[in-house]
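Build the 3D complex.
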Amino acid sequence: MDFPVLSTVLLAPLIAAFALCFVDKENRDLIRKVAAGAMIFALCFTLYAFFNFDTAVGGVQFAEKIPWVEDLGVCYSVGVDGISMPLLLLSDVIGVSAVYTSWNTEKRAKEFFILLLLLIAGVTGTFIARDLFIFLLSYELFVIPVFVMVLVWGSTKRLPKEFVAMKFIVFLLMGSAFMLVGVVLLYVTAYPAGERTFDFEALRLAEEMGHFSEDFQIFAFPLLLLGFGSLLSMFPFHSWSPDGHAAAPTAVSMIHAGILKKLGAYGLIRVGVLLLPLGAKYWSPLIVTTAVMGVLYAAYIVMAQKDLKYIIGYSSVSHMGYILLGIMTLNAISVSGAVANMVAHGMMTALFFSQIGYIYERTHLRSIPELRGLAHYMPHLTIGFMLAGMTSLGLPGLIEFLPEFTIFVGTFGVYPVQALIAIFVIVFTALYVLRLLATLLFGPKDEKFAVVPDEQGVSLVPLLLLGLFIVGFGLFPSLLMNVVNCGIEPLAPLFEKIAAAPTLMGGVR
Amino acid sequence: MNLMDFVRLATHVGLHHFLLFSALLFAIGLFGLLTKKGLIPLLMCVELMLNAVNINLVAFNHYMPVSDYSGQLMAIFAVAVAASEVAVGVALAFRIYRDHGTVDVDELREMKG
Amino acid sequence: MFFDFALYHAWLIPLLPALAFLIIGLGTRQNKKTSAIIGITAIGASFLLSLGVVGAVLTKRLVMAAPFVMKTVWAHIGNMDLGMGVLIDPLTAMMLVVVTTVALMVNIYSVGYMAHDPGMGRFFAFLSLFAASMLGLVISLNFLQMYIFWEGVGLCSYLLIGFYYYKISAREAAKKAFITTRIGDFGMLLGILLLQITFGTVDFIELKTLVPNYIWVSGTSFLTVIGLLLFIGPIGKSGQFPLHVWLPDAMEGPTPVSALIHAATMVVAGVYLIGRAYFIFAELPVVLHVIAWLGGFTAFFAATIAITQRPFKRILAYSTISQLGYMMLALGVGSLTASMFHLMTHAFFKALMFLCAGAVIEAMHEEADIFKMGGLRHRMPVTFKCMAIGVVAIAGLPPFAGFFSKDAILAAAAEVSFPLYLLASVTAFMTAFYMSRLLFVAFFGEVRDDCPAQETNAFMRWPLVVLAVLSVVSGAWGHFAGFSDWVFYGVREEEAINWTIAGSSIVLSLFAMWLAYQIYVEKRWSSHQIAKRLGVIYDLSFHAYYIDEIYAFIRELTVDKIGQLALWVDTHIVDGVVHGLGRLTKGLSVLLALPQNGDTQRYVAFFYTGVIALVAYSLFFAVKILAVTGGAF
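Done.
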């Protein structure tokens, strides 16, 4: 057996978290260095996997499999394919950035970094799981650290942080309750007792052999959609997300917007679309329409927001609408675009939040009339905000343009009206992003920011790291798209098969 | 049932008597548990109910066709457990009295949801 | 052979300034002199390569029918291949040399103009990035690549308009420019998407063969939609009505930027796009009609505004809009040659005038109102001569550049539609009038006592001279050396000057200039009196028909108000439902919590009630249970 790359990536933060339990809590420097070290270690292995991912071969690579609970058919089974590989990279890049963004955490630093590492381990596990049980286990695992972190390190603005933490957890657990029902249904329907398994490939096979009847799929898909959809902040189940961003500490906002939402989208593809394609097809017109409504609606709300975190929170609701649109259009091009856009949006929004976190940590301000004219004193911060903003409005040459374009190409032929609205929102995006940048960065000097230092040294790490990927993948999209392609191309027959399947609009679209 | 049968049943001590007795004991305990206000009487009532159960155990063990003494053993266990329970209960009662200045259960309402 | 070398290394033309941007941006930003040297060297090298490419055209190595193509795959998604590469034909070559020439001149000029600005390094970085994007746009192989660089030049324009970021006006102008052009880009993106979906490719070369077949099979109706959508992009970028509003405000940027981006190069990208994709547009008569009339209307409309403006650069800006309308008009009436010819000459003389404006405004210590100037020809003789050449060129007097190109457009318009020709002629008359007004008011008359103006330094003077020379000769050279042999669509166009049209246009221009001279120098008629006489019309023109105000109102209504409404809906209705559900649960829980009032004995009572109920239940069903278990209970 080859070297267990993925297990290393998964275990690095776990072991570091465990080790941190034994570090003196006063020794903050050691604590954060251990955390950073573990994440960089994991990132190196992820990069190794990413660049050694054989796109010519495709399929699941770096697979490991150890039986666990054999009676239930549970295996510790990990591996990455073209869909999860970029997302694994995303989560480790954001993980490193999140650690560096929280470098100056003073309050209970030890517990903070332990929870942060657990959180990252949770999302890593979800992305690399090849077994539905492991997937669910990791999926539920991250909720707890997030809850505690919002509760202890969060900030109270519009709503008290305790309230938000509760809203967050109730929303997600409600969603996962529905999803759990759906998953159990899948598990029992796929195979007769005794042969049951949680293995993704086997479940996929069950679908291909027609074990899931069309009626069953149509019934079970909304259950999964409720779970994954509320995590990816699908309109109208999005309202926990901006509040959550606003109350959460920066690192959690980064991971939440950058990774957790992508996790919802990933789950929707991996479990929803791949295991229940007919159900997905049946509901797709409805979901596509709500997705586009969400895109427009959230963009409108951003216009009226003043708080930076709410702005980015709602803008990520809007962007996630594009991703949902891409997934639910159910063709190879649009889904490729959606997967690539998950990476793109993750990097972009994490960069945004890390910049906001930087300025908030030093000034305790984060609404735009109060923060203004920062370009005079903080050129690095300005570059960070400009880079994130330009990515957000889909400037070509940066990471988000091509994925969005791909989604539009894929969607336009199937749902022209919805696509038209979605494309029109790029004008709105430009409007709110530029308004934000203009007021925040430019304009007359404000002397009170003269004492705030610019990003230097450690605090530059998130900008440099995320900026590298944003520009790199933007200029050379093949690096990203080739991997995504080799994950989506095998699904082309599936999409062709369901192209003719009925939807809730009745006949064949 | 004629009269003689009834007399025989009433005078000849059998399982029914024990069961009736224990039920009575249990009911008294329950009544006390529901009506008494002090913690100590409540504890005593609980003891009554426990002992009602013990009587059942022993009675069944005696009258039913079982080979070993499991019922009686169980009763002894129950007595031992009851003893420690009382010890803990009384200690708690003392503690509560010290903290709250009363052992009246109507005033001890911290469990209110 | 240098020409072949230049052709095969044409990809270096945009790459060199891009490298300069990286080097300046990451390294030498703080060092003004090094930054300037790097920027100028890069654009100079690109200029030389462009000359090589033009050389290849002149030696007939390259003709319209057989462009030079280099191609690589940029991204591959599903069954969609997105390419990047180089497409060079004479049209590209012309654009390359125009862009690099003006960019080089502006770079040199900026050394003088920005000498005292602490942000000079940043300025050169942005200029280099702009040059890279613009040159990338010019050599684009397909629509997507063009869109990518199209947005790239938009970004640079945004950055450079907002270069003086501490000025609120600059900040707002930059934002406005970006968003207005974004609206255009939305249409263009839609058009590109439709092309991709319909043809499976956006490559110019491939489309060129696919489009005629498609029209032969399916007719032009769907393509007309695509064509109109594609045209929305140029409307935004090239400042056509109704998306022209950003261009006058863009003058907030440093003047060299106005000269390079908002006069000579970026704004003509829209015209270039249509020229590049002329094989589509030429097949769509409806679209051509729209282009022609919109262009003609814009030309006229902007000229009516320019007549009453007072700031130096604002007049030039409206004149740019007007001239861009001219180019559109030429495209619309089917003359690619005339349009591109005018594009070239206009780039030279408009850049020249803007650079003069920069010199004047700097000499006047940032005073932009022409009526506060006067007599500058005594103080700044070189600048005056250059400016005069520019004005004569745009007025269209022979033998200056504008005469030939404008005449070509008028001739082309006259062939197609007399009303359009009339519109263009009236515009030409107004152009001559307001440009002469600008010249006479600013440079003639008495020198004011408090006038601080002095002749500019050498860095700023020599580019003026070079551009002035080009403004004189480029028209005649293009006309006689055979511009129409190189750049044309379909069959080569006739180039002989139609002296009826040319003659009448010369007479009109001369009359306009004489009129301006009488009003503003001789003061035979008072301009104030005329303005007062015109009343409402003057007011409308002076305030640019209040279009900005109307747009602000619409934006307020459709964006901000609805935004606030959406926020209200979100916090009160969507969130209200969520919180309501929470509250409902909480309410129900209160109901259930009622029995649990802390009275221990009540708990006990409930408990035993439950026990009794259970026992009663099991007794009641004892029979059934016995039946099920067969009495083995």
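Chain A has a mean pLDDT of 88.
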